[in-house]
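Collaboration report, partner site 2.

Our partner group contributed sequences for two proteins of shared interest, and the home lab folded both. The records are reproduced in the order in which they were received, starting with the first partner submission.
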Amino acid sequence: MSVQLQKRLFTVKEYHLMTEAGILSEGDRVELIEGEIIQMAAIGTRHASCVNRLARRFSLIPEDLATFAIQNPVKLTDRTEPQPDVVLLQPRADYYATAHPVPSEVLLLIEVSDSTFDYDRDVKVSIYSRSGIQEVWLVDLVKNCLEVYRQPDPNGYSLMLKFWRDQQVAPLAFPEFKVSVDFILA
């Protein structure tokens, strides 16, 4: 006889209440993915260096064109609030002090991946597509390439482009702002 157990899924509101109650701390490396609290992998030196380089490059975009966020939450649904590595957001006067950004405010979302590449590609990129995030970059530190996902729909992104060393790519929101894959990967 097989017994099917029911999971207790959490909402974003309940997730935040857990921090307020001290169940989770601000320092816990967790994110809420489809109602489940997922422990995030430790950040290795190459991962951190890649995020630093992306931060340096994208910080050159004027603040009246984009707000730049590193490893901050994005509320995708009532049950999903990931913390992507880098996000370019539509500017808001409050710099997102009153609420976390939602998909319609995301100009570009970037995940840097080494040990979690399959999870990031198969689970998170799929969620980003269903949420309507217009463009996602997945930096693959193992294969030393950049996967760019565009044209979201409920079944996944219609377009995936792969960029390698010696190539450049520009975000859809800033086509004149070219980024070297060599610079991203170092």
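Second partner submission, folded after the first:
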Amino acid sequence: MATGLLNRLFTITEYHAMIDNGILTENDRVELIKGEIVYMSPIGRRHAAQVKRIAEVLYRYLLGRVTIGVQDPVELDNHSEPLPDISLLQRRGDFYQSAHPQPEDILLLVEVADTTAETDKAVEITLYAENNIVEVWLVDINAQSVEVYREPSGNGYQRIQRLQRGQTLSILALPDIEMTVDEVLGEGMLT
């Protein structure tokens, strides 16, 4: 008789208790995905620089209109608290001090991929669709493109668009804002 391994899945409350009690610390690069504590890939120079670039572009366009999170947690359900690279959130006076952002607070999530594009699509973007995040951008450094995911469903995003340099991006929740893919990616390939 073959037996499978049983995994112990954690809730957000249990995950936060581990942080509060020092079991997990700021030095542990982990996130809670579907009840599992998952180690995150180290952040390389290209990835870090790209996140900073995108944040600067978004601040330029959106300062005072939204709250911008950079590698901050979002609480999607009772078993998932990922750390997207960038989150655009409804403005709140307490800047989410009383609670992490929930799906209804999220206007846009941005993930940056230099070595993790397929994993981001299979794990994070699927998770975001399951939790009804209305829009996600996957900024692929190697492909020099931005994939825009909209119309979430239980089967993933129904509308996916891949944009290249020279094309224009807009944010579904802020239709008066337009920027170019070139602004998001920066000048030339990051090395």
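Feedback sent to the partner group on the second submission included the following. The helical segments are 12-20, 45-62, 117-130, 181-185. The first strand starts at residue 30 and ends at 33.
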